UniProtKB/TrEMBL annotation, chain B:
It comes from the Bacteria. PANTHER family: ALTERED INHERITANCE OF MITOCHONDRIA PROTEIN 24, MITOCHONDRIAL. InterPro entries: AIM24 (IPR002838), AIM24_sf (IPR036983), Trp_RNA-bd_attenuator-like_dom (IPR016031). This is AIM24 family protein.
Length: 257, 216
């Protein structure tokens, strides 16, 4: 794309097929169905219908590849033939191919994916996991950098990870040691480095970083539905009263009493 | 060379034992190896006196010391990053534009108001520099942040460079800066071109200009 020679004019045939138009826009060559996040389509050629996700004609498709009831309101299915342009607030947009793999991505960064992939909620709050074979489009604040573990990552700079185990927290308070560190810890003088907390990745895989710690506005996904057997950040299924001796306790919950 | 640009907004720094780096707090994106990040109470070099100097000059920016062995990736606020290599010269830059710099560089604060009297003060106001600026001197590299990409313009003696004060990022070498004005009757009646103030840089060196008129 020679931006120096003035604007490039595209039509339905010259628009790239499943490729970037420029760093900030992606053109999907649609023939069938794609899932996309609401509001990320900026233009299209051809006959494309957009269906909300719910019960109806697309029930089977959704049952097959959309496993995130939390996000049902944020996603639509694009169906038809044509070229569809995707963009998100002039953030950098890139497409990624998965081959029988898995990739976890920050929920706000995922723009669209092929139905051959299936979308699931990651157990890490705010992230979604894509499993299978297919193409998906994700945005990032600044270009994406790929890093191989072992690496520790600023939580805000993390876009996603592929094929490696889920990260764990790493806390670094080394500077609180020693005499000066003791004074610092005791008085709070000197402040913090802002880098005490990272996500630590180990094992084989790839970690995707964006070039800044400024997050794209997120879609809240961290809350899991309030159901039995679902692990909770806020254990609302725990008894609110302190447990008395003689109570059944965990057993009670386990048997659903 | 400790800084390697990864893309337009990110640099990778190699940290080796015995050589420390300074970076803006919170600007680390990821690291490999055994690296520690310590908040620098004094905000850089020169001990307590240096700290007081920077506080007075309003050039105190929260810095942290980066030590250990490994590689660290830096980036901040989505700003473009430009790496400046210094071989003994002095770089004049606003402290809040510093993303990271070699610990081997000598950090100082300079009073800029002496250049040009009253106009020097106006210049400080217009460029957002204030009356003081940070200097880095010696051999090493500096990663400077800018809004939009950075363009390097060489300054030769007898050929001054005029820069929009809002687009000015930093300069290095033996350079004098002064504010030149082109205020005429049009500005007085509110029909100005919007380019009434320009920064005139003369001497021998380089000026760094960002491709935007937005401040950091």
């Amino acid at each position: 794309m020679s931006s120096v020679n003035g604007p490039v004019v595209f039509d339905a045939h010259t628009l790239p097929a499943d490729d970037n138009v420029n760093p900030y826009a992606f053109s999907v060559d649609l023939d069938g169905q794609w899932f996309l996040q609401k509001g990320k389509m900026i233009a299209y050629y051809g006959r494309i219908d957009f269906h909300g996700i719910g019960h109806g004609r697309l029930d089977r498709l959704i049952a097959h590849s959309f496993h995130s009831p939390l996000h049902a309101a944020d996603w639509v299915v694009a169906e038809g033939r044509g070229k569809m342009l995707l963009a998100d607030r002039s953030f950098d947009v890139n497409s990624y191919d998965l081959e029988d793999g898995n990739l976890t991505v920050r929920s706000g960064n995922l723009l669209a994916f092929q139905p051959s992939l299936s979308l699931k909620q990651s157990i890490v709050p705010g992230f979604l996991t894509l499993i299978g074979t297919g193409k998906f489009v994700a945005a990032s604040n600044g270009p994406v950098v790929f890093v191989e573990p072992p690496v520790r990552v600023d939580p805000q700079a993390l876009v996603g990870w592929a094929d490696c185990p889920s990260p764990c927290h790493h806390y670094d308070h080394q500077y609180l040691r020693g005499v000066l560190g003791g004074v610092r810890a005791f008085t709070g003088l000197g402040g913090t480095s802002g880098e005490e907390h990272q996500f630590e990745f180990v094992g084989a895989g790839t970690v995707l970083l964006q070039s800044t710690e400024q997050l794209m506005a997120d879609i809240p996904t961290g809350e899991v539905p309030d159901q039995a057997g679902v692990p909770h950040a806020t254990p609302s299924n725990q008894p609110s009263m302190p447990r008395m001796p003689g109570q059944l306790g965990d057993l009670q919950r386990r048997f659903g009493l | 060379m400790p800084f390697r640009p990864l893309n337009s907004r990110m640099v990778e720094a190699t940290v080796v034992p015995g050589q420390r780096l300074f970076s803006q707090r919170g600007a680390m994106l990821a690291y490999k190896g055994d690296v520690s990040f310590t908040p620098s109470i004094t905000g850089g070099q020169g001990g307590v006196l240096g700290m007081i100097g920077r506080r007075v000059a309003n050039e105190a920016t929260p810095l942290m010391t980066v030590e250990g062995s490994g590689t660290v990736m830096f980036g901040h606020g989505g700003h473009h990053v430009h790496v400046v290599e210094l071989a003994g010269e002095t770089l004049y830059v606003e402290a809040d534009r510093l993303l990271a710099f070699d610990g081997s560089l000598q950090q100082g604060t300079m009073f800029m108001g002496s250049q040009g009297g009253v106009m020097g003060m106006v210049r400080g106001q217009v460029t957002g520099q204030g009356l003081f600026t940070t200097t880095l001197k010696g051999r090493g590299a500096v990663a400077v942040m800018a809004h939009g990409g950075v363009i390097e313009l060489p300054i030769r003696s007898g050929r001054p460079v005029h820069v929009d004060p809002q687009a000015y990022v930093a300069h290095r070498g033996d350079v004098r800066s002064k504010l030149s004005t082109a205020i005429g009757w049009r500005e007085m009646v509110g029909r100005g071109s919007g380019e009434a103030f320009q920064l005139e840089l003369s001497g021998e060196g380089t000026v760094y200009v960002q491709a935007s008129e937005e401040k950091l």
